[in-house]
Amino acid sequence: MSSASIMALRVPQGTDMSIIRDSAVSSTAMAFRVPQGIDRLRIPFSSALAFFEGFLILVHVFLENQQGLRTLQQIPTRIDLASNVKNTSLKLLDAFVDSLFRFEDQPLLPTQSNFAPVDEIGEAVEISCIDGEIPPDFPEGVYIRNGSNPLFGALQSTVSVFGRSSETWFEGEGMVHAVYFAKNLQGKWRLSYKNKYVETETYKIEKERSKPSFLPAIEGDSPAVLAAFLLNQLRYGEVSKCISNTNVFEHSGKCYAVAENDIPQEIDLFSLNRLNEWDVNGAWDRPFTSHPKRAPVTGELVIIGVDTKQPYVVLGVISADGKTLTHRADLELKRCVLSHEIGVTERYNIILDCPLTLNTSRLIKGGPLIKYDEKGYSSIGVMPRYGDAKSVKWFEVETHCIFHVLNCFEDGDEVVVRGCRAQASIIPGPDLGLNKFEWFSRGLKPMDETVDYYPTGSDGFLFSRAYEWKLNMKSGQVKERFLTRTDFSMDFPAINNSYIGLRNKYGYTQVVDSAASSSSGLPKYGKVAKLYFDQKDKRIPELREKGWEDVVKVEYHHLGESEFCSGAVFVGKHGAAVEEDDGWIVSFVHNEETDLSQVHIIDAKKFEGEAVAKISLPHRVPYGFHGTFISSVGPILDSS
């Protein structure tokens, strides 16, 4: 039986299958041919050839047949593997993939050394080397950060008759790194460090097979991505790996690792073992945002889930105890927006609709699965907490790309949204045929302050600045402005989480080192910034000449030479914190000269000064994504 029948495609009646096969085989665009060595497989050549021809028919029907397109768009994210391959040997599928696809390690440049993965260390290791002192009112708890850590030593590419597809840095398996802060009975600090892979079901599959198995299904030649899309689903019931590498969050006393291509994975904070998937007692059956937001006052968790099939974007509200999905709404968007984050205020949910889309139809027609359209439209939606698609008030705004929100709040008739805005998207990377290193290097260079618009490919087009939108709920008017100048690109924002959804005075961001980023072709963050939203930059005469008189005051904490940070979070003082910035910024920091990884604790009130403590870790920590600090974890920490 061919794989076409596995997917239950309906080839139009009267179609001459030999014509389809011959057309597929001879297609110059697809460059199909039976690979050399297929006769050496441990299966009859005729069976292998029949399967290969069947797969060609499958791809051809998807490429040429609108029914096939509709079928692909309706394929569930997860399928019952047994029911769909009951008449086909999984060994034959594996042999077919092994004969056609060659996995290759993606090499790293010397300037990319700390993007390389590390091994698990096993049991937690006590930390003894601390430069400075941990403040006495620093809370006990766990600082934990997620990141990409490819399982087999490097990101993978595959080469086949379909072309090349490659994993991006955002697709390595998730690994969490945790630093435990506890006081013993005498009140002295005891610190330890541990790391561990997030052992998702797809991680277990490749770990057991001891080799890369999932075909990269995001970036690459369209036929190769399409083939990966289909073959992964046929073999494993998943389009791609569940990576769970982007963020870590806490809700109702439980800790979760997450990436938005799947649902969260609950992890035990002490062992870092993955416990189970969190589908809210079976009520949530689709991907889950990497940045859920806890609503002020109620403590409910507001989420969205993006999928390549309709409904494209669904919003959910989870009860404060994490047991119930109390609200679910299809936002009825006309495109699948790669919306990385959501915002909340006291009464509203904030929806970001930018022209960064996933589109299987575009993929089938030879384009990329993920694409940013710099000439497309952007809008921001304001939705009552338990509203539906009809209740969303949409505001058209200037075209932009935004991944991360600083905060949202209500101010009279206005809803204020602050985030880190760029002219283009760093995901999925350059178009096919362009040099990836050169593309990233140019995009991460400093901006020309005399230019307002940066077309993709010009220097600085990936430059990200803090930005503000004021959305008037009565008049429908929008006021928007940059909050920061063109000195530095900044992203990965943090605030005091007690102010999520409420008016706040301060925000914190990681600051791009443009020179180091351009030389490595990947973003590196050499500073941390503190933004004073209620104070203007004091250099008014100079700024007025350049039209920047509304930018806010910014302080910078400089890391050391060749030091770069990741996973910066705000940690509030334990006990009687009075002001919003009573606390510290905590971040992983790596020195590329000494190859030493540390955790820095920076006083948020004395931001430009030296870190109050630099905690040297017993193991290298690669650059990663987002983290959190979970305080008052009690008995999981040994206080002896």
Automatic annotation (TrEMBL):
Transmembrane segments: none
GO molecular function: carotenoid dioxygenase activity; metal ion binding
Pfam families named among the record's database cross-references: RPE65
Iron found in the keyword field: yes
One annotated Gene Ontology cellular component of this protein: chloroplast stroma
GO terms of biological process kind: carotene catabolic process
Binding-site residues for Fe cation, renumbered to this chain: 291, 340, 404, 626
UniProt cofactor note: Binds 1 Fe(2+) ion per subunit.
Keyword list, A-Z: Dioxygenase, Iron, Metal-binding, Oxidoreductase
Cofactor names: Fe(2+)
Family: Belongs to the carotenoid oxygenase family.
UniProt name for this protein: Uncharacterized protein
Source lineage: Eukaryota, Viridiplantae, Streptophyta, Embryophyta, Tracheophyta
